[in-house]
Amino acid sequence: MTELVVRVNGTEQKLDVDPEMPLLWALRDVIGLTGTKYGCGQALCGACVVHLNGEPVRACVTPVRRAAGGAVVTIEGLSPDGNHPLQRAWVELGVPQCGFCQAGQIMSAAALLAKKPRPTDAEIDESLAGNLCRCGTYTRIRAAVRKAAGNP
Ligand code: FES
Ligand code: FES
């Protein structure tokens, strides 16, 4: 065990864990942030996407050592009050069905909008292609991303 320091949603966390532990385990089981979901554990579904130093990463295959000294943002920290434009658009358009994939979808979309505030449909589709939704909410996801970007 090694103590690793990671800033998570603006708060410094001291993690006394195996450095090879997946970041997802540290977030969910050690810190208690369960908004980020475990889908496949193999970087295939996108349910576990969080931001590490501003970039979207799949927390299920990211060893926690990679986050040491860095900053992680999870769905809980995307906005202080759940009022990020994407979260508002998601609610207004009633995007989720079961909801399981949605945190990952929103975090991938947030990373896109941070780089491209007015993405095209093709750019939205490309950025979210790795986020699977077994409920098939893709059309509403794209509409919500467009709405959040002020491009309805
Ligand atoms: S749980 Fe990480 S990509 Fe599926
Ligand atoms: S809303 Fe159910 S998997 Fe996407």
Please tell me the total number of domains.
Answer: 2
Helical run tally: 5
Measured distance between first and last alpha carbons: 50 Å
Q: H/E element string? A: EEHEEEHHHH
Structural classification: alpha+beta
Main sheet: strands, sense, barrel: 5 strands, mixed
Stretches with pLDDT under 50, minimum 5 residues: none
The residue fraction in helices comes out at 25-40%
* CATH topology term of the largest domain: Ubiquitin-like (UB roll)
Beta fraction: 15-25%
As a whole number of angstroms, the C-alpha radius of gyration is: 15 Å
- Provide the spatial order of strands within the biggest beta sheet: 2-1-5-3-4
So, CATH architecture of the largest domain?
Roll
Attached small molecules? FE2/S2 (inorganic) cluster
Q: What's the CATH first level of the largest domain?
A: Alpha Beta
Query: What general outline do the C-alpha atoms trace?
Result: globular
Looking at CATH, the homologous superfamily of the largest domain is: Beta-grasp domain
Topology (elements, then pairings):
Layout: E1 2-8, E2 11-17, H1 23-31, E3 49-52, E4 55-58, E5 71-73, H2 85-92, H3 102-115, H4 121-128, H5 138-148
Parallel strand pairs: 1-5
Antiparallel strand pairs: 1-2, 3-4, 3-5
The structure holds FE2/S2 (inorganic) cluster (FES) (2 copies).
Account of the 3D structure:
Keywords: 2Fe-2S, Iron, Iron-sulfur, Metal-binding, Oxidoreductase. Helix content is 33%, strand content 16%. With 152 residues, it is α+β, with helices and mostly antiparallel strands. The chain folds into two domains: 76 residues, Beta-grasp domain (Ubiquitin-like (UB roll)), CATH 3.10.20.30; 64 residues, DNA polymerase, domain 1 (Orthogonal Bundle). It has a five-stranded mixed beta sheet, with helices on both faces. A hairpin with a 2-residue loop joins β3 and β4. α2 packs across α5 and α3 crosses α4. The model has no long low-confidence stretch (mean pLDDT 96). The structure holds FE2/S2 (inorganic) cluster (FES) (2 copies). The site of one FE2/S2 (inorganic) cluster (FES) has 12 residues, from loops.
